Amino acid sequence: MNVVNVGIIGTGNISDEYLKNLGDYPDVRVIAVADLDLDRAAAQAEKYGIPFSGSSEQLLGIPDVELVINLTIPAVHAEVAQSIVAAGKHIWGEKPLTLDRPSARALLDAAAHAGVLVGNAPDTILGEAIQNAHRLLLDGRIGQPETVLTLMQGPGPDAWHPRPQFLFARGAGPLFDIGPYYFSTLVQLLGPIESVEALGHRPRSERAVMSGPDAGSTFPVEVSTHVSVLTRFVSGVVGTSVYSFDSPVRRQSFEITGSAGTMEVPVSGFDGATRILPADGDGTEWETIAPPPPARGRGVGVLEMARAIRAGREPVASGELAYHVLDAMLAVEESIDERRPILVESRVRALSALSVDWDPRARSLE
To answer: Which residue from 169, 174, 236, 287 has the fewest beta carbons nearer than 10 Å?
Structure first.
């Protein structure tokens, strides 16, 4: 078995994280980048020593590219993903999978028909932090999970992103931009979601760009920028969540309470320790459990998928997982609009934790 050659379509801000980290993983090799802005693609290729840059059509015509990373904006995820599948390439997509159920299901069906795999961000669920928490949960450190509380709030990406407009358009906002990290982690740790009930709020119809060349310009807000969700899982666990771009206070929290204690899960990135508070203590004696090395970063999902391709199996961060997360988030939107609980019809298999010695920097495909 040899390394998996990778192409990237979309060379905006997030491509730097992928290109930097994938260069540290010997089982994958980025050999081509593409963008509508050919100059931007060329600049990224030169910066990271990538042999080819050009249009997406040119990239998809390169026989040696096996796996393509779709880093385009959410509004064109489905269209670009279908073109990748049509070219016979495996696809790793940024979140969300698509913007609606029909296009997402059509993508997964097309991939199955073509015999290619679909993987999807976020890959924070494969980071050492959440994997460490998952193993502790499976070991029964807090007993049987009963409830979960998640919170993400802050002033919003217009405070720092030079082109934040798309993050307030349909298919984004805190629910679709940040929600996938939390929903994917919820499903990773607690299993599939059965139903949701939600409220949404949009206090401003316009917001302003606050940094970069467009600073001071305004743009419309198309989505709820504060979302509150009640969640029921198939397992019987119930949850409360808030996702907000409307608070000057920056706060992130993810707590699972079980029959024997509470677990704080570090969901804000790839690293961080898990904290556990036993139910039989005095309520102050938290145990801090750091994850084992090595560290991981964005792009680790692409690596795990590359290894899955060579092993002939589904990736952990699979298209079916992304579909269930999308299904749940769309149900949240429907609950906001219809002012009632919404059943989540899709299901996804239980996810296993990675082995404690899973090493992204190991050379296993050469």
So the answer is: 236
